[in-house]
Amino acid sequence: MTDFRLDDPTPTDPRHRWGDLDLAGRGACYDNNAAVPDSAAQVAARNAASAAYRAAHPAHLDIPYAGGERTAFDLYPAAAADAPCLVFVHGGYWQRNARADFACFAEGLNAAGWSVAMPGYTLAPEASLAAIVAEIGTALDWLAAHGRDHGIGGRIVLSGWSAGGHLAAFHLGHPAVAAALAISGVYDLAPIRDTYLDDKLHLTDDEIATLSPLRLPVADKPMTLAYGSRELPALIRDGRNLHALRSAAHAPGALLPVPGADHFSILNEFRRPDGLLVRAAQDLLGGER
Description:
Order of helices and strands: HHHEEEHEHEHEHHEHEH
Helix content: 25-40%
Keywords: Hydrolase
Domain BD-FAE-like: 79-170
Mean pLDDT: 95
CATH class: Alpha Beta
CATH topology: Rossmann fold
CATH superfamily: Alpha/Beta hydrolase fold, catalytic domain
Protein name: Acetyl esterase/lipase
Number of helices: 10
InterPro entries: AB_hydrolase_fold, BD-FAE-like_dom, GDXG_lipolytic_enzyme
Number of strands: 8
Shape: globular
Pfam families: BD-FAE
Number of domains: 1
Radius of gyration: 18 Å
Strand order of the largest sheet: 1-2-4-3-5-6-7-8
Low-confidence stretches: 1-7
């Protein structure tokens, strides 16, 4: 793992002494719920706001892109069919949450004149990580072929949070994607296999090698990597490491620390048309509104 300067204000990444940590210590490196004292209250507020937003925008919900129970889109089209579209992939370490829980984060971009598309995906252990990654690829294929039938035909910025940040970073090279905004993601899967998270994922050597963005060739498209300044060090380091890898390859894109944000509150920057993440998405398309 990359070493950082001693005057770096970010707390030391505990993964630097990975071999000295027990299972609980390794799990704590990724346990966002435990790291954010009011995480349960934030999640409850998010889910309530999302239920209200979804109820107010019922015209294009639960549209299947494949045959699975969760493989469907919730679409929030803009007034103009050629408006840019943010595709937002939810998180939950590939094993919990649902697209409906994140509907409220379409609010800021909708108000700014963008469309938003939120795909669901099959969760582990019902699906392997390789299968989940493939489903997001299928979702992007479907949106490119059928989005205009639902009022979505503009350029796509692929975004995602937490596990969704991983899925967004992985699919930057998809032909339908113009740019990506990866938020608070996990970009090296190897440590995950040594934690409680692998109880449902059962990661293989091949998945770690072929699905970790930090282990793959760099896609030469713009990607902004965002994280909250109060995130767990492991997530901050993964974001910085991926940005450094891309910078070394001269790939475009910014590193975006969100001041004062934790793993959950960072997404509130999607709630307003002037939110930091809304502006980041617009900047990826040259300020397109």
